[in-house]
Amino acid sequence: MQDLCLIDSHCHLDRLDDELDGVLNRAQERGVGSFLCVSINMENVLEVIDIARRYPQVFASVGVHPNERQGQEPEMEALLALADDPNVIAIGETGLDYFHCKGDLGWQQERFRRHIIAAKRCRKPLIIHSRDAAVDTLQIMAKEGAADAGGVMHCFTGDWEMAVRAMEMGFYISFSGIVTFNSAAGLREVARRIPDDRLLVETDSPYLAPVPYRGKPNQPAYVREVAMCLATLRGCSLEQIARITSDNFRTLFQLQ
Ligand code: NI
C-alpha cells in the first residue's frame, strides 16, 4: 500500500520514450498520483490534451515554450479556444529564455505577454519558464498584471530575491531535479526558505533527472527524489512535503 500522494506539477508525457501506462504505473507505485502534462508547442498541444482526456489523473496545459522558434505562433484566439477544454488547467509553459535564445528577443517577449493576457482572460494560472532573464521576466509579469492570473515559476533556478518578487505577485515556486545537483547549493538554500504555502515539486521529465538518476531520461516517478531532497533541506518528512505540495497544487489550479 502506498499512502503517499505526490503530484508532478510539470512533466512532458508526450515526449517520453516509454509507453505511458507503464510510466504512470511506476509513478503510482512510488506515491506519485497526479500529473500536469505541459504543452510546449502548437504542433503537440492536441496530443497533450488527449493524454489528459484518456487519463483522469493527468491534467493538461496550453502554450508555446519560449525556445520554440520554428513552429506555429500561438495566436490569442487559438490559445483561448484550446484552454476552454475542461482538461486544461493552466496556460504555458511560457516565459523568457535568454540562455538558449540570443539576439533580438522581442518576439519572445511579445509571445510571453500574449500568454499572460490569455491566462487572465480564461482565468487559468500561468506556468512560467525563466532562464537568465529574471529582470525582464519579473518586469513583464508586473506590467501585464500576471498577478491577476497567478501561477507557478516552474523549474525554479533564480535567487531568493526573484522568488520573493514572484511570490509577491501570488506565484508558487516549483523545484525540479536541479535542486538535487551537487552544484546547486545556492538553490537549495532558496528552497529551504520558501514558505510551505508556496512550494511545488516537478520533474520536467524527460529532462533534468534528479540525483541519483542524473544524466538518464527522467520520469514522473522521480519527483519523489525531488521531494525527498526538500524534506531533508527543510527538516520535515517526505509525507509532509507530499501533503504541502499536493494541497498547493490543488489550491493553485482550483481542483478542490
Ligand atoms: Ni518543461
Could you characterize the architecture of this molecule?
Strand 3 (58-62), helix 3 and strand 4 (88-97) form a beta-alpha-beta unit. This protein has one domain (6-252): TIM Barrel (Alpha-Beta Barrel). The chain contains nine helices and eight strands. The chain has an eight-stranded parallel sheet. It is an alpha/beta fold. The mean pLDDT is 96. It has helices at 20-29, 45-54, 76-83, 106-122, 134-144, 160-168, 185-193, 223-234, 238-252; strands at residues 6-11, 32-37, 58-62, 88-97, 126-131, 151-153, 171-175, 199-201. Helix 3 (76-83) runs parallel beside helix 4 (106-122) and helix 8 packs across helix 9. Helix content is 39%, strand content 17%. The chain binds nickel (II) ion (NI). The site of nickel (II) ion has 5 residues, from loops. Residues 10, 12, 38, 93, 204 line the site of nickel (II) ion.
